[in-house]
Specification:
The protein is of the alpha+beta class. The protein is built from six helices and ten strands. The chain folds into two domains: about 1-135, 60s Ribosomal Protein L30, Chain: A (2-Layer Sandwich), CATH 3.30.1330; about 145-219, 2-Layer Sandwich (Alpha-Beta Plaits).
């Protein structure tokens, strides 16, 4: 078995040059791909602040697109992603913005398709990332855990109905809602895996619109 070196410990094995601007971008793209779970017609990547100012030089634009296309952080094809045939699977564009209310390495991934979806996240350093908003619902998806994401109508007892069907330990649970009795979201990080039967049973609960099961990212 290969022993980890100090380089592996302090930074992910990746195509560079930057862990936050390149590897982090790939991981954000991968999480957005897994959350969407479909083929869009167009994706707009809105880069903010440091991402916007230095992203091109650090390959942030390449990383975001490569991740959304399913490439891993150590895939050498990232360097030439714009020239590859897979980059023609859908239309894409990049926008560069400043917003001092956002993290220095923030991105919105605006997906046009069925459904339309806006996924927002930050690259927080050393390749670590977090998805913190999906269509303005507050979530926390960092790729370290298998994660179950639900969108549903806010009704009494929904949390207990969902969690009672989960046979593995729950690492964290975050909920958000537009208003009482309206649309809500639930984000559940899990220590183990869920079978398709369990996911279907949760999806079949009344008043649940969307269920996504996001596998944890490889280190």
């Amino acid at each position: 078995m290969r022993q980890s070196s100090i380089i592996d410990i302090i930074s992910p094995i990746m195509v560079g040059p930057s862990s936050s601007h390149t590897a982090g971008a790939v991981r954000l793209g991968l999480l957005a791909r897994n959350l969407y779970n479909g083929m869009p017609s167009k994706v707009t990547f809105r880069l903010y602040n440091s991402y916007a100012k230095t992203g091109k030089g650090h390959g942030t634009d390449k990383g975001l697109l490569a991740g959304f296309l399913g490439l891993s952080v150590d895939d050498v094809r990232i360097r030439n992603i714009f020239d590859l045939e897979i980059s023609k699977n859908f239309d894409y564009s990049f926008e560069y913005l400043e917003d001092f209310n956002r993290h220095p390495n923030a991105v919105d991934i605006v997906i046009d398709g069925v459904p339309n979806l806006t996924i927002s996240g930050d690259s927080i350093g050393a390749g670590e990332v977090v998805i913190n908003s999906i269509d303005n619902f507050s979530v926390k998806v960092n790729g370290k855990y298998n994660t179950l994401l639900l969108v549903y109508r806010d009704i009494p007892g929904m949390i207990s109905k969902v969690t009672s069907k989960i046979p593995v330990n729950i690492a964290s649970l975050n909920c958000d809602r537009n208003a009482k009795g309206e649309d809500a979201s639930m984000c559940i990080a899990l220590d183990g895996e869920l079978s398709q039967d369990i996911i279907k049973a949760i999806h079949d609960l009344p008043s649940i619109y969307i269920v996504r099961y996001i596998k944890k990212l490889e280190s």
